[in-house]
Amino acid sequence: TAGITQAPTSQILAAGRSMTLRCTQDMRHNAMYWYRQDLGLGLRLIHYSNTAGTTGKGEVPDGYSVSRANTDDFPLTLASAVPSQTSVYFCASSESQGSTDTQYFGPGTRLTVL
Amino acid sequence: GQNIDQPTEMTATEGAIVQINCTYQTSGFNGLFWYQQHAGEAPTFLSYNVLDGLEEKGRFSSFLSRSKGYSYLLLKELQMKDSASYLCATMDSNYQLIWGAGTKLIIKP
């Protein structure tokens, strides 16, 4: 089974440009998450979705937006990228939010903003 | 505030035992997770503790003391493939994970 896929694997983006990071899961999980991982810091939650049609803000939501039109897909959009958004972005999913269900992670997208 | 501390890096020898510590202060507590992350890859789930005590799973064991805000991950019979970062994360009262920065474990032959 594929689990969670992310695209692209890596990207170099000019500052001020927009970009959408794609995330798809085939486990029929209700909850999905976007994290960023920076050197020396723990994973930080950007946005999450408890179920299709709902989204919520995490610890570091500024500069990012998400949508959850269906169960499988949870894209993350940077409307106008800035160099501080250079990071590795991980998408994750769990059976449900509001529980202790294990989160499963995609392979990540390495984004460099110049 | 919320804070998770774990050592930045540890070195151990193949075949030996290593203990990776994690201390935490969080608002609300719904358990503690350990994940393994090889360089350039996704974190993968290792263990979950919500009650005090030791949980053993093959070569890996995880311990929790809620009163002390302390956990450790114990890796036995170390193998070269165990070289990775080990991430400690607590689940807060909103069921969101708060992550430590991770401990990079280097295994030497």
Q: How would you describe what is shown here?
A:
With 114 residues, chain A is mainly beta. Chain A is built from no helices and 11 strands. Chain A has strands spanning 4-7, 10-13, 19-25, 31-37, 44-49, 56-57, 64-66, 76-78, 87-94, 104-105, 109-113. The mean pLDDT of chain A is 95. Chain B is an all-beta fold and 109 residues long. Chain B has strands spanning 3-5, 9-13, 18-25, 32-37, 44-49, 53-57, 60-65, 70-75, 84-91, 97-99, 103-108. In chain B, strands 2, 4, 5, 9, 10 and 11 form a 6-stranded mixed sheet that branches. A 5-stranded antiparallel sheet of chain B has the order 1-3-8-7-6, with no helix packed on it. Chain B starts with a strand and ends with a strand.
Low-confidence stretches of chain A: none
Largest interface: A-B, 20 and 22 residues
* Residue-averaged pLDDT of chain A: 95
Cα end-to-end separation of chain B: 41 Å
Number of strands of chain B: 11
- The helix content of chain A is under 10%
Share in helix of chain B: under 10%
Structural class of chain A: mainly beta
Shape of chain A: globular
> Quick one: biggest sheet of chain B?
6 strands, mixed
SSE series of chain A: EEEEEEEEEEE
- Shape of chain B from CA axes? globular
Helix/strand/pairing category of chain B: mainly beta
Largest sheet of chain A: 7 strands, mixed
Order of helices and strands of chain B: EEEEEEEEEEE
- Helix run count of chain B: 0
Poorly predicted ranges of chain B: none
Overall radius of gyration of chain B: 13 Å
Secondary structure: number of strands of chain A: 11
Please give the radius of gyration of chain A in angstroms.
13 Å
Annotation field: number of helices of chain A: 0
Summary of the model, kept short:
The complex is a heterodimer of chains A (114) and B (109). Chain A contains no helices and eleven strands. Chain A has strands spanning 4-7, 10-13, 19-25, 31-37, 44-49, 56-57, 64-66, 76-78, 87-94, 104-105, 109-113.
